[in-house]
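Revision sheet: structure tokens.
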Amino acid sequence: MLPVMLDLKRGPVILYGDGPAAVRRYRLLVEAGATHIRVFSPAEPSPALSRTVGTVTIGAPEDTDIADAIAVFVADVPDAAVVAARARALRVLVNVEDDTRHCDFYTPSVVRRGDLVIAISTGGKSPGLARLLRQRLEGEFGPEWGERLARIGEARATWRAEGLDLATVAARTRDLVEKEGWI
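Predicted:
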């Protein structure tokens, strides 16, 4: 697996599911910055999903819906394998919760501190371990890390505008972090 960061603002994302699993996925997508989430439910959506999402389309997404998406997320539905196969046939990335056989990618456990994102994955082998590691890292990387990264980002932009090469920028970043005692 190649760890990547997927920009969910670049196009529509489909969520197909219902119940607590779909609510969790929806919240994950919102936290990750998705701006256009189309939600589908195999039947009348649960009250929790309706409250969280608002508009839910009843039924599986059509091929035209899938083809327009940058990714499809499937959560706890009996026809998950069918929807995953359709997404793959249309060359759209798909993630089926807790079913690595039908995933093109896994969603890691995530620590977010502003633009700092720390992702933990076990390759689908132990989401529980990933959660425990995330909880530990949340304690080690508090909210102040968002501000620290913003400061580093501003300094980096200045250094790059001055024409400094990447090796020098990396050295200055290291020096700043060490001087401040952040690590």
